[in-house]
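Pilot study result, target chain (371 residues):
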Amino acid sequence: GVNSVSFYSVDNAGNKEEVQNVEVKVDKTAPETKSDAPTTWVKEADVTLTATDAQSGVAKTFYSLNGSEFKEGTTLSVGEEGINHVSFYSVDNAGNKEETQIVEIKVDKTVPETKSDVPASWVKEDVTVKLTPSDSQSGIAKTYYTIDGSDLIDGTSFTLSQEGIHDITYYTVDKAGNIEATKTAQVKIDKTAPTIFANFNAEYELGSTLNLTYSAQDNLSGIVKEEVIFNGKKYKNGDTVTFYQPGEYTLSIKTTDAAGLTTIIEKTFVVYILIQLDVLPKVIHGNKGIFGVLATLPKGYCSTFDISTVTLNGIQFTSKNWGLQKLGEFGLFKFEREDFEWNPGYVELELRGKLSNGYVFVGKTNALVKR
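Predicted structure:
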């Protein structure tokens, strides 16, 4: 503190000096310096050092940044990324030196980075999106995302199940307040398989042609692959085939969309032999009795007829007579007139069945009916 000293002198003759007074100021206490350094992560920091001394007063303040030489001053800026160390002390007017203090200033200038596992292509099931943020300095504070223009949502995982194209935005903020630039992604979901539109008959005449034309549609991801297999061979949409042999033919049409969904339609065709059909007699009277039809195969075919499969206008050929059965095997079939409903005029008759070799035959003709 401040000490007062009074003093005087007396000489040998007895003369006494006037009393004098002086002050002696003593300061044994070092000054104290405080800093306003932030304790959390920041993007940058301006630090002020404030020193106090109750006795002799502050003479100078010194600081050092990250081990540099001490310099005089009470303000400094810290901008180097990472954990910075500021050392400082003050000296008072009595020469007392404060113990050096050290504070940490954590600076993070780098924005965080967020990665997503959004699938790049179309998918056919629900999608769970995971957002993975990273930050090498201050660490992650929050991650936000939106779905199809929604309000911001805090989180790193969500599931989408509705079909269609979903627009996703997302970004992350770190603990220093650095904000990542908004990222965008699309989640594309297609749960509906393609549709195939095709119109084919169940049977075709020998020698006719078939146009393998169809239309395929997919309203979301789109069709990426089509495959046409006709009787084991590959064809393309719009190709034509000619039936040179009777028998059974198979057709498979397969379409696949960008999400991996597949639609298959399969058709089976029967190619029949067209026979010549004659009615015996040429005029049918609508009363009881028997009439016959004669089936003649085209040249090159010599098979007999499988009489168990033969029908005329849907009426099954049946005969217990061995002779009539034998005639039927060679193409002459006898029917009871009363098994049919007759209307006067010309009536179309259709005979169909199988040959003994399994091939289907069909014959058509018109007969005149009279009462």
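One observation from the pilot: DSSP finds one helix and 33 strands in the chain. A full batch analysis is planned for the follow-on phase.
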